Every structure is written in structure tokens, then in C-alpha cells.
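Why do we bother with holo predictions? Because pocket geometry can differ from the apo form. Keep that in mind while you read this record for histidyl-adenosine monophosphate.
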Amino acid sequence: MSSFQAPKGTYDILPADAATVLAVREAIAAPLRRSGYGYIETPVFEDVNLFSRGVGESTDIVSKEMFTLTKRGSEELALRPEGTASVLRAALQANLHRTGNLPVKLWYSGSQYRYERPQKGRYRQFWQVGAEAIGAEDPALDAELIILADDAYRSLGLRNFRILLNSLGDKQCRPVYRAALQDFLSGLDLDADTVRRAELNPLRVLDRQARVGAGATGRRADAGRLPVRGLQGLPRAGPRAAHGGRVSFEDDTKLVRGLDYYTRTTFEFVHDGLGAQSAVGGGGRYDGLSEMIGGPSLPSVGWALGVDRTVLALEAEGVVLTAPGATDVFAVPLGEEARRVLFGAVTGLRREGIRADFAYGGKGLKAAMKAADRSGARFALVAGERDLAEGLVQLKDLTNGDQTPVALDALVATLKEKLK
Ligand code: HAM
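The structure, written out:
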């Protein structure tokens, strides 16, 4: 062990777990790729004001959890706590909304940073795959995104997740609701921090305080139910809701979300096997965000799914993604001449698309065969001087110990046949 450890709240993705992590990222990306979303990458750090204006001063993400970097001079940067503000900033900067079709549909995959109290499923560096559809009000887009996330989770074999849906209101009804909520909260005996929050964004109080939240949600009914528009095509989950290839959701009027940019439709994907950190993904409409960061009016909708928590959800459901072994063939040379010949043979196999590795480090036969076993390879390729003199190598099937001599120049064809 070295004298260093990964920083608190972070962890290393090691080869044994990497196949699952990569498969999760790929499973989330696949439905997006076939639905017209283009891949985008943005810097891991941005002007800190992008997040304080975009994500919101009243949120924990901005007020408590931001990793800020101070450069020489006064310009402040922050590690991105989420992807939406950066992606919209990049789209505006490149004028994608003027030069291409609307909506501009983008997807991304990357690490995000939040200085949170670490616990299972909650890290200071975590991974999201996200999708944003920028510049269209069409509620069919909200539906499209929810369906794509549902497809992604199902393609991984996940079953025990639910979709919670709410609306945070639009330009007309949100101020009425906000005023009613502020009025309700002002009648309660609240601590100074909560009073400040209620002034900045009263909805945040619902997020923070379950008890106050329950009362205030009751009040929401008086302020008028906020309509979830346009998602009538999605069936609601009933007690006996069968999936049948359709997406079902539950209304959750307490769903607030931890970011201030949301308007109208918001949703969260929760998994019931994860304990406290049950949200495996979330998103919604953010019709006002573009204007908040100095752009034109561009009503938009998107989501981000948490890769780390999706991996935990797979574990909780006992889903094992069949990861193919990393190696098909492992070469074991006996002697210097064999080392030279088999090194060439391994290079040739790799160029033909066969996954091959080699006993490096001048190991003896016993240690080299052990390395072959550990590699997970199906075949060992063994050769000594006598084999080479006859132009042969020995192909040993490691699953049953059978050994057959194969002509060196027939090796590629033989292995391609056997690995089919
Ligand atoms: P979010 O709900 O903050 O939304 O994060 C989305 C997902 O990222 C969460 O549901 C969770 O799975 C994962 N996540 C968040 N924080 C952590 C953490 N500390 N450790 C592990 N996983 C975490 C957003 O980030 C929005 N940008 C989503 C969006 C896109 N809305 C519109 N477009």
C-alpha cells in the first residue's frame, strides 16, 4: 500500500467492476443514440456564477456543496456539480440553437462533484449520463425522455424502480403558488435558516423539512393543483399496474428536486433497494434557465441518471451483467525462441480481433500456467523448441485440459472457429 488513499467520498473503479460500470453507461447511452441525441463534452470546471445563477443560490448544491477553485486574480471557478447548466452554456456559446433544428438534443457522460457528506450511494465525485432537449415546449419531449430512461433501466434488467412525477408550475401559476406557500410558512415558527430559504425559494423548504413539507403540501391543494401537462399518454401506476411495455408513473406532489431551475414537469426515478439514497435519476423542464444565464428564451427538458447508484441498484436486485472475460488466449512460451515466436503470434491474433495476452516477466511453466488460469482465458497457447521445429503450437483448452497441436499458420483460423 502506498501512503496515499483516494480522497474522502471518492473511490476507484477497478477492472473487476469496470465492466459493469461501462455497461451501465452504455445501456443509458444506447437509447439516446438511436433517438437523435448528439454527444457533447464540456469542461469539468466552469465560472462559478454559471452554477450560482443556474442551479440556484437557495440550493444545497450551490450554497454548501460546491468545490470552488480560486485562480490568480479574482475569477472563481467551480468543479461542475451537474451537467445541465454547462451543456446549455455550451449550446448557447456555439449557437447550436440558431444553426440547427430545435430542439437541440444532446447527451453527455461524465463525473460531477458535490461536497456532500459521503455515505453509501452518495459520493463527492460521481458519474452521470444525461440528456437535454433544448428549445422546444412540446410535452412529447418530456414523454420521450421519461420513456428513454425507462428503456435504459429495463435493458439492464432492473425492475424495482418507480417513476415519480410532479409539476412545479409555470410562469402563470408558479407565482400564485409561491405567494400562497410563503404566506403559509410565515405563519409558522421557523428557524432563521428556513426563513431565509423561504424568502429565496419557498419550495426549497418543502425539500428540506418533511414536517413543514407535509403541512405545506396540504396547502398546495388550496393554491391549486399544478397540472402535469401533456403526459396523459403515460399510464399511471395502479396497485396492479402491469408493465406490458408501457411506462407507468406515480404522482408525487412532494417531489421538489434539489435544483432551482425547474419549471412544470419534474420527475425522479427511485429504486426501492437502495435505502436513503434511493434516487437513481432525475430531471424535468427548465424553461427559464437559458434566460437566467443570459440567453434567449429556450424552453427545455432533460434528465441525468446516476451511474454509481444504478450499479448499486443492479447489485440490490442481484442482476449480474454477463461480462465477457478480458482475454481469450494466453501465450505460455517455453524458452527464448518460443518467446520470440509466440510474442509475434499474440500480436497477430490481436490484429485479427482475438483477445490475447502473454506470460511476461520470464515466468517458468508452472507460474505461467497459473497466470493463464487467472487471466480467465479459454485457451493457453504453449510452445517449446520441439513444437516450433515442427511449425506447431499446443492449444490447451483450459476448461477441460484437452490439448491439440495446431500448425502456427493455421492458428488464427483455428481459434476463430473454436471461439465462435
Ligand atoms: P440530480 O437529481 O441532482 O439532477 O442528479 C441526478 C442523479 O445523479 C441523481 O438521481 C443521483 O442518481 C445522482 N447523484 C446526485 N448526487 C449524487 C452523489 N452525491 N453521489 C452519487 N450519485 C449522485 C441533476 O443533476 C440534473 N442536472 C438533472 C437534469 C438534467 N435536469 C434536467 N436536465
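The longest helix spans residues 15-33.
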